[in-house]
Amino acid sequence: MTIEVRDLDEITTGEEIRVALSSALKASLEDEMRLRSGFRGIQAALIRMLGRTAQKLLTIGKINIGLTVCQIQGRITVDGCYRCQGYGHHAAKCLDIDNLNACRRCSMTEHKKKECGRSSPRCIVCTNGGVRADHFAGSDQCRASKAELLKAKDRRNGRATIRVPNYRTVESTGWASVEPVMLFPTTLGGSFGRRLDFSTLLCQE
pTM score, two decimals? Predict the structure, then answer.
């Protein structure tokens, strides 16, 4: 599981974070840690650890590091597949298109990312899904990674969801039958679109 320690000041070091968390846990913390900078130098630390250790820190909720009270939150991560370059599974269980030889920058198969000279990125997963793909895979514009992230959030919260593109929702107060609809196909085995509640009807716009 990955936890995120937020609101770290810009001079906080990884060792300071490790010492503070080890003190809170009353045990040495040797797990992998990554620091990333945010707005106005505020940092966040991402730490992968065993679930039971993470739960202890999440129960604590806050921790003093330096002169700052830092928030401890669980972070939802999405598995990535190096075979299809998609999300939500690993290569060993991949049933999607083999994109192993595709450039991870422009999606072409003639070269690898380190040899790519193209100025414009192209996400191969969104390309195969038939949606806008002029972005890097996994970026804020990537609908494929966003869709899988929503699924991961729903699984954590115990919710079931349907995603259907270009449909509006109509409130329903009782049972009703609707015409079958075609879900948008993707290489993720799911659908892009907005999240709908089971108490709604689907009506094509």
Answer: 0.48
Q: Residue 95 has which token pair?
A: 């049933």
**Conformation bin of residue 138: beta by default, left when phi > 0, alpha when psi is -120 to 50:** left
CATH number of the domain residue 48 falls in:
3.30.70.330
The range of the structural domain enclosing residue 178 comes to: 159-204
Structure confidence by residue, pLDDT tens digits, 143-161: 888 888 888 777 766 554 4
Residue 165 to residues 54, 125, 134, 203, Cα–Cα distance (Å) = 36, 17, 19, 11
Number of domain units in the chain: 2
Tokens of 39: 């707005």
**Residue in this structure with the two tokens 């993470």, named with its chain if needed:** 54
Residue 195 lies in a domain: yes
Residue with tokens 């079958």: 180
